[in-house]
Amino acid sequence: MTNTYQIYLISDSTGETLDRIFTAIKAQFKNIDYKIHTYSFTRTENQILKIFSEAEKSSNSIILYSIVDSNLAKYLANTSSEKNIPCFGVLGDLILSFSKLLNQKASHQPSGQYALNDEYYKRIAAIQFTMSHDDGNLVKEISKSDIILLGVSRTSKTPTSIYLANKGYKTSNIPLVNENSIPKTLKENPKITCVIGLNTEPERLVDLRKNRMNSLKETENKFYTDIEKIKKEVDDAKKTFRKYKWPSIDVTRKSVEETAASIIKIYEIYKQND
Known about the structure:
274 residues, alpha/beta, Rossmann fold, 2 domains, four-stranded parallel β-sheet, 11 helices
């Protein structure tokens, strides 16, 4: 019988950073049985003592913490040592190392990454814009986009757009049924902003579209899933991208993150040449 590890994630903020770090750690180990106990906004010694009163109940407790207040972090580490509970800080050494390297004292401010600065408001504006300009909506405003994505159905336009928006890029995406589906403004001025085409292998597109039909419990549309029609659809899209000299990305074997990274590189080159 395997032991169940009691994992205590203690953070002075939302705990999101710590949760991601533990997710990366646990992916390296197979067949481990664990239970997570998350404690967010832990900012006093009393809160820490209450957590330890729970952690002491098991001989398999492990503590991971993300606390930027050096005094509180030291208190947690010392208490852990006294009670003989394994304890690991995920930010302290990094902050100290960067402080020395940059020759600058750290602010030790909890939730510092969530400060309401210009970058934060830019990201919120980008998300709102992108959600409003999804799937060909509000095409009259596409000139306000940082990036415009074009592609046939099921080429990850929407999830990629949302990912880019979270990076601060106002993104419009437009379904490419045929050349007539391209907004007139874009045809007349193909370089109005950074326009990028998304394409994929026809065989992969067939699978994606069939899965979509099944998930929606709809009767299969032969035109929508026919391999020969899809081959023509993809080929026509590629011809359109070449005609208007729009760079394109094959998303067949790419994750949304990988596709977005390629798009950002293209955008940066576009801005340099703009």
